Each structure stands twice: as structure tokens, then as C-alpha cells.
């Protein structure tokens, strides 16, 4: 018995009888078929997927994507669906946080935005005084404007994963990361969570995730 439900561009098949046209020999799987060409409103689609999948275990799903050739959009859709399939709020927030951080790390790595040479980034290269380790500095004394290296910087590397710092680019870099352009954040986070993401500089991953969970 194959039960097929079609809701807009989402088809959910709850049982595979071996004769189905999408038989991939994955017994007892729930197939989520998404045609990227038909998506006009990703937020609405995700809302429908969350509603239609809430009674199933995440492990039950197999995702079938008909691509439109736009790899970035495909990745956005897949990550938004993965977030929809998370079992609870904590798992979902952690998934979103880590996925966005990985995306930002990869963007900085492949584009070499900060262009560090001998620990000096491109924005600080023309400063009179040599400033190492880019913008990983905090104000120590507000009155004297004294800056010190962020305590989370260990062995010249950030010891945590601070999404707010990762989203920041100074005036020397043209590329700006806006929350509205990152579907995982734009779709899943409310205005207060977005404010937390924007303002939690110099904070650990755990601190920011806690704030997102219990604001
Ligand atoms: S964002 Fe700007 S100041 Fe910060 S490390 Fe990169 S180039 Fe340097
Ligand atoms: S938390 Fe931010 S400022 Fe501190 S080390 Fe990490 S990236 Fe640098």
C-alpha cells in the first residue's frame, strides 16, 4: 500500500511497495520530493514541510531534489529542510547555528577577504602602529579606549565559534553578510533572535546558543 499526498510541490510517500516510480529500494522511507523550479516562497514551503513531517522520525526521510542548476539555492533549501526535520527547538537552533558558521567559514576561506599576512590583516596593514590578529580586540578601558586581544583568541585562532564575529566585515571588505540573505536565519529566527545574532560579539558558541534558546 502506497499512500501519496501531494501538497503544493511536496509529495510525501509513506510506504514503498516496490512498484513505485520513485522506488529507490529504501524500504519504509518517507520521501520528500522537491522541485526547485516550483519554489516561489521558501518560507511558506518550509512551514508546510514542518506541518506535514512533525509525526515522523527524522531518520525516516529521504530527500529527492529536482535541481534548477542553482547550487547555492539548492544548499539553502536542503539546509532549511534539514532544520525543519529537527526533533526539537534545541537541536534545530544548534543545527542552524553550526550550518551558518560553516557557510561563513567557507566564504572567508575561499574568498580570502581578510588576506592575513604575518598575522596582519588587510585593514590593519596601513595602520601607523602594527596591529596583529585583525579585529579580535575588545575595549579594555572604555574611558581610555584601550584595546586588548579577545580572551577567546588562543594560539592565534578563535577558540570558539562566534557567529556574530563571523558575520562581521569591516570597511576594507566590500562583501557584507545580511541576515535577511541567509535563509536559515531569516526563516527560522524571530526579531529578538536576529538581534542576539547581530550583537553577541566576543561570545562563545554555547553562550549565544543559550541566549537564542532562552531569550
Ligand atoms: S574584518 Fe577587517 S579588520 Fe577584521 S580581520 Fe578582516 S580585514 Fe581585518
Ligand atoms: S570571539 Fe570573536 S573576537 Fe574573540 S577570538 Fe573569536 S572571532 Fe575573535
List keywords for this structure.
36% helix, 215 residues, binds iron/sulfur cluster, 2 domains, two-stranded antiparallel sheet, alpha+beta, 8 strands, single chain
Could you please describe the fold and organization of this structure?
With 215 residues, the protein is α+β, with helices and mostly antiparallel strands. It has 2 domains: 4-84, no CATH class; 89-213, no CATH class. It is 36% helix and 15% strand. The protein has 7 helices and 8 strands, in the order βββαβααββββαααα. It has helices spanning 42-53, 71-84, 89-111, 163-167, 183-188, 191-199, 205-213, and strands at residues 4-7, 10-13, 30-35, 61-66, 137-141, 146-149, 153-154, 157-158.
Task: Quickly describe the structure.
With 215 residues, this protein is of the alpha+beta class.
What share of residues are in beta strands?
A: 15-25%
What is the CA-based Rg, rounded? 22 Å
Number of helices: 7
Ligands, deduplicated? iron/sulfur cluster
Largest sheet, order of strands side by side?
A: 1-2-3-4
Query: What is the global morphology?
Result: elongated
The helix-strand sequence is EEEHEHHEEEEHHHH
Terminal CA distance reads 46 Å
Oligomer: single chain
Helix-strand category: alpha+beta
Amino acid at each position: 500500500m502506497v499512500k501519496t499526498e501531494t501538497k503544493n510541490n511536496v509529495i510525501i510517500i509513506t510506504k514503498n511497495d516496490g512498484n513505485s516510480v520513485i522506488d529507490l529500494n529504501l524500504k519504509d522511507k518517507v520521501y520528500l520530493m522537491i522541485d526547485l523550479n516550483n519554489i516561489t516562497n521558501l518560507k511558506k514551503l518550509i512551514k508546510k514541510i514542518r506541518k506535514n513531517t512533525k509525526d515522523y522520525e527524522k531518520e525516516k526521510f529521504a530527500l529527492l531534489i529536482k535541481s534548477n542548476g542553482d547550487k547555492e539555492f539548492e544548499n539553502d533549501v536542503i539546509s532549511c529542510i534539514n532544520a525543519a526535520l529537527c526533533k526539537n527547538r534545541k537541536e534545530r537552533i544548534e543545527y542552524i547555528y553550526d550550518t551558518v558558521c560553516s557557510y561563513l567559514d567557507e566564504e572567508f576561506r575561499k574568498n580570502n577577504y581578510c588576506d592575513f599576512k604575518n598575522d596582519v590583516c588587510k585593514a590593519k596593514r596601513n595602520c601607523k602602529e602594527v596591529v596583529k590578529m585583525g579585529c579580535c580586540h575588545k575595549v579594555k578601558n572604555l574611558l581610555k579606549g584601550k584595546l586588548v586581544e579577545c580572551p577567546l583568541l588562543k594560539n592565534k585562532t578563535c577558540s570558539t565559534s562566534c557567529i556574530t564575529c563571523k558575520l562581521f566585515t569591516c570597511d576594507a571588505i566590500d562583501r557584507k553578510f545580511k541576515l535577511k540573505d541567509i535563509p536559515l536565519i531569516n526563516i527560522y529566527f524571530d526579531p529578538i533572535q536576529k538581534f542576539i545574532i547581530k550583537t553577541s560579539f566576543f561570545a562563545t558558541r554555547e553562550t549565544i546558543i543559550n541566549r537564542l534558546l532562552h531569550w
